[in-house]
Amino acid sequence: MSPGDVPVYSMGGRMKAVERRVKIGEVVLRLVMCGLCAITCALIGTDTQVRMIFSLEKKAKYTDMKALVFLVITNGVASGYSLIQGVRCLVAMTRGSVLFNKTLAWAIFSCDQVMAYLLLAAVAAAMQSAVLSEFGQPEMQWMKVCNLYRKFCNQVGEGLVSSFLASLSMVTISFLSAFNLFRLYGPNKGRGNTSYTVSM
Amino acid sequence: MSPGDVPVYSMGGRMKAVERRVKIGEVVLRLVMCGLCAITCALIGTDTQVRMIFSLEKKAKYTDMKALVFLVITNGVASGYSLIQGVRCLVAMTRGSVLFNKTLAWAIFSCDQVMAYLLLAAVAAAMQSAVLSEFGQPEMQWMKVCNLYRKFCNQVGEGLVSSFLASLSMVTISFLSAFNLFRLYGPNKGRGNTSYTVSM
């Protein structure tokens, strides 16, 4: 152990228990998120439906809607990212110790934040498209298409639920990485107080 | 000063300078955000265009598109919220001292996070609608409407830019409130180290 390192048992049992719960929670969330993103990609990426309309064969696929393409790409990237991060957390746990420095914490925090906002934006845009497909927008002369492609729309709906749950997991993970980063800037050195005065 | 409070000068000059910059940055961002959200509401809420199409009078307004209604409501709430928060920060600065406790930090952090994600989701959904209005979606038989209502669409575009900038400000503010909250959980008591070892 280098001179700059502080063993965890000096922080007291409560802090150690919090550390442990945060670490386990982070691993579980990252792996759950990886699975949910992969499910979203599979559900939406493989979704097709063929209909015969006046002897014309019409095929619905996710590439017809740019928002769904964006959703599949974002979920694919998020799935790979959370797998790598989950493995990193697992390795750190099994090795029994983690060297945690500000640069690494900043990198993880930044990537997590970007991923959370990207996933949420992709889900919001895809949901807007889904609502338009389901209900149409009479003021714009945009007709409903889901009454023609019911099976296709249902599968997109399942993908959206899965992606929404993934983005909730990502939001929670980004809280944890913010916690891991910003407590390194703790001002309460030498005391266990919960309040302090800032003079400006 | 109560016994639990720690005067800022005991943290050293560097920490004090960081404190000060964070506080000033927070006030500026909150007031800028309040203005940007108000501008968005004004731009989109007052946006109308009347066209004569085959002797029929057609009027475009923001309520024709649910995503724009959601955007205006979210920006209205965010504008009021950031005004209140900005005034709170200003009062705290002019009074010269802030009593900062975990409960208040958690409340501010939670509200800021919810607001950041809501604003971003609203902007993403409205942008998706705007892209559909501008380019149409031929696969769905959804026609472009912006070539009919050019002035209306341009004003919505300006509102979207303003709202996007507001959501970037809100994201930055939510970083600051995460910083303000989680450093209260700092483990580095008694040392100025930047790395530590966690044993599990």
TrEMBL record, chains A, B:
TM spans (from-to): 27-46, 67-84, 104-127, 160-182
Any one GO CC term of the record: plasma membrane
Keywords, in A-Z order: Cell membrane, Membrane, Transmembrane, Transmembrane helix
Key word Metal-binding present: no
Keyword Ubl conjugation annotated: no
UniProt subcellular location: Cell membrane
Topology in the lipid bilayer: Multi-pass membrane protein
Signal peptide: none
Casparian strip membrane protein domain ranges (all copies): 20-168
Pfam families, alphabetized: CASP_dom (PF04535)
Source superkingdom: Eukaryota
NCBIfam families the UniProt entry points to: A_tha_TIGR01569 (TIGR01569)
Family: Belongs to the Casparian strip membrane proteins (CASP) family.
Subunit comment: Homodimer and heterodimers.
Protein name per its UniProtKB record: CASP-like protein
Lineage: Eukaryota, Viridiplantae, Streptophyta, Embryophyta, Tracheophyta
